[in-house]
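Entry 12.
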Amino acid sequence: MSEKKQGSKSNQMWGGHYSVAPAELLQKINASIGFDKKLYSQDIEASMAHAKMLVNQKIISAEDGNNILDGLKRIKRDIEDGLVKWNYALEDIHMNIEARLKKLTGDSASRLHTARSRNDQVATDFKMWVRDAIGKANRRLSAIQDILLVKAEEYHDTIMPGFTHLQSAQPITFGHHLMAYYEMFGRDYARFSNINVNECPLGAAALAGTSFPIDREYTANQLDFEKPTRNSLDSVSDRDFALEYLSAASICMMHLSRLAEEMVIWTSKQFDFIKLPEEFTTGSSIMPQKRNPDAAELVRGKTGRVYGDLMGLLTTMKGLPLAYNKDSQEDKEPVFDAAETLEDCLAVMIGMIEGMSANKEKMRAAAKQGFPTATDFADWLVRELNIPFRDAHHITGQAVKLAEEKNCGLEDLSLDELQEIHTDINDGIFAVLSVENSVNSRTSYGGTAPANVLAQIKSAKKESGNV
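Predicted 3D structure (tokens):
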């Protein structure tokens, strides 16, 4: 069927020189109101700032400006009260609001679009939405850091094994381990905070600016931007802020996934290091003894979803010539999805950490396995006997081999047995072979000693204003 037979004269707001309506299939893939309705608040706020500026610059009358402002306020109330039914034939949130405004204010509404385009309009709305999403993410990140500080202080001297390659390496404290995640989430906070959402695209119009005497500084100020964007072409085609948000969200999800993975491991009976709150675990349909860490597993699983959002938008943007292209309509869904996923996962992780308890006895027992004080043994040989570290490493390896043969710990070897390996070893060696002494000795800046952990917590509280 030809286009002429499919539709009559176009009733689109942009269809003045069209004699037929768009094909139904085009209308289906062209409509974005199903998802960009999330931008209603930002769209109305930006339109109000634009209207005020048009009045100030005497581009439209004060009467038209007041009608527009009153109408936009009414529309926002109606949307929030659930009284608005979206018209999918009008494509997007901008046209839906403009059409409703025309019903309320008549010709005044038709003057609102003076000196702007949907291109700069959506870029502004979307940047404002991302700015709000950054604030939500950072509030969640601050909350997760606060609860990590509480737990780290509670377990600042709880000894557990530290791992490399998931093999027991050296004893550390659980508080120190938790503070590692505090640092990760702090970097996430900084990444979100550094996303450039400080420049306002409004006034760039379609791509080349406008001949009307607009005041872009005014609208930028009204919308809490630091300044207007400097190049009209870049203004309407830039989606770096969305990509930066997705990148920061992906890295944050990676950190959440690492912690979730450790929770999955630690809750297994083979480890039994921690217990998660019941409300964040599930049972088995066939095995009544099971308590599955489903919340942690879902956080781990949803990480790939956010990665996909990032890769999808990168792929969309990679081949777009200047300036605006309809492909950019694909920018919102991945960001909306990632923001919702991230916020949910942060909230779930906060709940799991808050209700988490540690099995101190199991952690300490595990810390003694696998000869975790071997490095302390080698360091003692260097420090006390002036043996080069590589030679000390070899001597320690011989001691570990002997302990393996005897199925005992290094601290259980006799002085005579140790002196058969190296004659200068004395009974001072036993002072460094307990996991407690090993942990307490790690006083270098950033080390795991309980005193260090408490000092780090104190410093973190001071920085956050929670002292």
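Annotation: The chain has a mean pLDDT of 93. The beta strands are 159-164, 167-173, 199-200, 227-228, 274-275, 357-358.
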